[in-house]
Amino acid sequence: MDATSAFDGFDRAEGSHHRQVRAPRSIAGGLAEEPGFWAWRLEAACGGLPSSVFFSPDGERGAARRRRERAAKLVCAGCRVRERCADYALSHRERYGVWGGLSEHERAMIWDRQGGTAT
Question: Sign of the CA dihedral 18, 22, 23, 25?
Fold first, then answer.
């Protein structure tokens, strides 16, 4: 997984969730991040939960998607770092999953209102 994708605690490709927190050596454009950049994840309520709570399997639609997103948002609702997580997802154009209580669709609507789309 590269540094520009979803944080390493949620490995969408492998479908696994792990608690290890590592700051990436660089992000898109080769810029080094400050050491505390990822520290907020240590306080996240989602730690230890499977990524399938937050990221949809291929082909998920309708009621199943709404149920999964509702469950993810319940976790986010009680999270101490919900706002930081949502800010991260918005500023880094995280296209997939529920981040900070915001679904993929909700983030896309925010980006559209700001005059940009997910890349």
Answer: negative
For residue range 3-18, list pLDDT tens digits in order: 333 333 333 333 333 3
Would the CA dihedral through 102, 65, 18, 15 be positive or negative? Answer: negative
Euclidean distance between CA atoms 90 and 29, whole angstroms: 18
Q: What is the pLDDT of residues 83-93, one digit of tens each?
A: 999 999 999 99
Spans of the chain, pLDDT less than 70:
1-35, 116-119
> Per-residue DSSP letters for 20-69?
-----S--GGGPPPPGGGGGGGGG-TTTTS-GGGTSPPTT--HHHHHHHH
What's the number of CA atoms in the CB half-sphere (13 Å) around residue 51?
Answer: 19
Quote the CA–CA distance of 102 and 105 in Å, as a whole number.
8
CA distance 37 to 35: 6
Sign for the pseudo-dihedral over CA of 50, 53, 119, 7: negative
Place of tokens 């950049």: 37
